[in-house]
Each structure stands twice: as structure tokens, then as C-alpha cells.
Amino acid sequence: MEVDGVQAVASICKKVDIIPSEFIRSENEQPAITTLHGVVLEVPVIDLSDSDEAKLVELVAESSKNWGIFQVVNHGIPDESISKLIEVGKEFFELPREEKEVIAKTPESGIEGYGTSLEKEIDGKKGWVDHLFHRVWPPSAINFKYWPKNPPSYREANEKYAEKLREVSDKLFKYLSLGIGLEGHEMKAAAGGDDLIYMMKINYYPPCPRPDLALGVAAHTDMSTLTILVPNEVQGLQVFRDDNWYDVKYIPNALIIHIGDQIEIMSNGKYKAVFHRTTVNKEKTRMSWPVFLEPPAEHEVGPISKLVNEENPSKYKTKKFKDYFYCKLNKLPQ
After folding, report:
1. To the nearest 5 percent, what fractions of the chain are helix, strand and coil?
2. Is 222 marked active-site?
3. Domains of the chain: total
4. pLDDT tens digit string along 277-286?
5. 50-106 pLDDT, tens per residue?
6. Where do the Fe2OG dioxygenase domain residues begin and end (predicted)?
């Protein structure tokens, strides 16, 4: 079982205004030095209620090729459903540590459960974040053992959100397919079809006495197909663009969409996974709710055959998602 989450470290550090050395990033990572200050990046915003499908296809494709990130509004998920998701997640992380540790990760649980460490850290540095992982779809993949029992409304809030989220993701997969000359169903089918795993993660970034030195999550691309993210109101997401790190401007009740590694691979590089990281705040707790849409573990992912020819040879290996996942978490070459 994992112990000593960042929440516990934060409660001690706020009294002394310093942070342990394992959280202090090297100068080439420290946000105070590496962020382009005074500029907020306005990533593309797409209105999913637009009745012009051809326009939506073009917008999603262009955003995915040139940015790897965009926000969607009028997406069909009620504000109330998002508010409830946020409310129950916040309540869980505010429980006493002993209650949270009832669903702590174990060596057998894999990625699911409550914990703080996730992947091999370069130079032993840690992210200023605790998290909870559990699958929310399909039903055959869910293990309720890793879902909080408290608050009691946690399960209903997550199930309702996941149900609406699937409608959004199906639209996005269709537009991504059509945007590179495929038939509407082909991108989702290549990713695992109806067996696609929806992995919920809650990130909890407590106030940090030295946000100039620490990161919530270090720079990375997501290993998912798509990541669909809800943030709370506290700024923290940064994107690397034109050789600079920028804060991303949030739109209230929008969903933030990341193109992940598997979409980049399946599109043979036409779509680009977004390189991003998260910063932390001195006064406020930041939280986010990304859902990672992942192929099943045994599913093989590679460039879609229609996109590969003599002029466009395959740029990526075809491999089982579980093998890709293992290499990425352990910082091994793909």
C-alpha cells in the first residue's frame, strides 16, 4: 500500500514555507524560469452544437494537427453533471487519510486506486500531486473496489458523467476519422471499438509553498487515444508551443481535449499528441478530472493501413497497448 501522500507533505510544508528537495525541479523545468509570463494561450474552442458537420470535422482535424489540444463547448454534458462530478471528487480528497487509504493502490491493483506515485521519475523527482484512478466504462472493465464509498453519491455522479461522456467521445472519433479521409467509424474501431476503456483519474494538487520550483505533473504526452478533461477553476495546465511553456486559458464548463499518443500513432503522425505539464498554486488547491480513452490491454495499435503507402511509410511500430503502456511508464524506448 502506498503511504504519505502529497496532501500530508503539504500540510507540514505550509508551516515552514519550504518543500522537500525531491519536489524541487531542475532549472530547465522550474515553472518560474521556463514559463512565458504575461501571455495566456488561447487554444482552439469548438462549439459541438454547430449543425454544420463538415465545419466541425475541419475544426477538429485542424486543431488536432496543429495544436493537439482544443476545448469543446455546448458538448451536451449538463453543467449539473460536471458540478456533481467535481463536488464528489473534492469530498473524497477531503476525507481523513485513513478513509482514502481504504482504496489505496496495491501491487495487484495496477494503476487503479488512490495513491501518489505513477511512473518512473527522472532523477528521483516527484510531482506535487495525489491521485485516484478507476475505470468508468465499459461495465465489464469496472472494479467498484476502487471507487470511493464516501461520499455515497460518488458512484451515481461518475456513472452519469461517463454515460454522457461516451456521446461526446463518439462524435470526436467520428470527426477525427473523417478529417483524415477515413470513414466515420474507422478511428474508433482501430482504437478498440466498444471495448475502449474509459479510465477516470482525479488529480489533487494541494497548495504548494514554492510553486515557482515544483510541478504537479512533469512534461509529457498522454498515452491514451483521447483525454477528455474537466479542471476546477484554478489555473495549472501548460502547453509547450513555439519553444515556450504557456498557461492555457480555461473556458467555464468547457471540456479540454488532448490528442494522445495512440491517435498520433493511428493517424501515422497526421494528428499530434500535445506536450503538456501542470503547475501548482501557493494558496489554492487545484484539481482536474481527466478521462483517458485507452485501447484494451491486448489490443494492437499501429498506423491505420489506409494511411500508409509508398509516399507515407509507417512512422510507428504496431504493438499491444499493454506493451506501449509498460514502456511509457518505465521510460523505455518504444
Report:
1. 35, 25, 45
2. yes
3. 1
4. 999 999 999 9
5. 999 999 999 999 999 999 999 999 999 999 999 999 999 999 999 999 999 999 988
6. 196-295
User: Of the residues 65, 90, 125, 220, which is catalytic?
Assistant: 220
Residue 22 belongs to some domain of the structure: yes
Instruction: Name the grid cell of 102.
Output: 481504504
Which one is catalytic: 130, 222, 247, 261?
A: 222
Tell me the whole-structure pTM to 2 decimals.
0.95
| CATH code assigned at 310 | 2.60.120.330
Is 185 one of the annotated active-site residues of the chain? no
**pLDDT computed for residue 2 by the predictor:** 43
Q: Is 134 a catalytic residue?
A: no
299 is catalytic: no
Q: Say if 1 falls within a structural domain.
A: no
Domain of 11, in residue numbers: 6-329
139-167 residues labelled b (16+ CB within 10 A) or e (exposed): eebbeeebbbeebeebeebbebbbeebbe
